[in-house]
Amino acid sequence: MNLEYYAVIFTSTTGDDLSDYQEWSDKMIELANSIPGFISVESARSAVGITVSYWKDLESISNFKDMPIIATRNSEDVVSGIEIIG
Description:
With about 90 residues, this protein is an alpha+beta fold. It is about 30% helix and about 35% strand. It has a single domain, classed as 2-Layer Sandwich (Alpha-Beta Plaits). It contains 3 helices and 4 strands; from the N terminus they run E-H-E-E-H-H-E. The chain has a 4-stranded antiparallel sheet.
């Protein structure tokens, strides 16, 4: 059994209006599930949200980070302070 994997750590802060946040979060998870090499995801949220997704290899992470919804989300109002560390 191969236990090697990579983690992407996604942090976010939210404003007062969370109406679109859950929908966006669900889209992110759906998108990740569609990329070969995605293993799983774990999240925790209070004033700051932290999501850790696990990936088979660096190519899979690159494919995720290059998706347009990931690249443009930082300029929108629902979530600010996006940082993806991979």
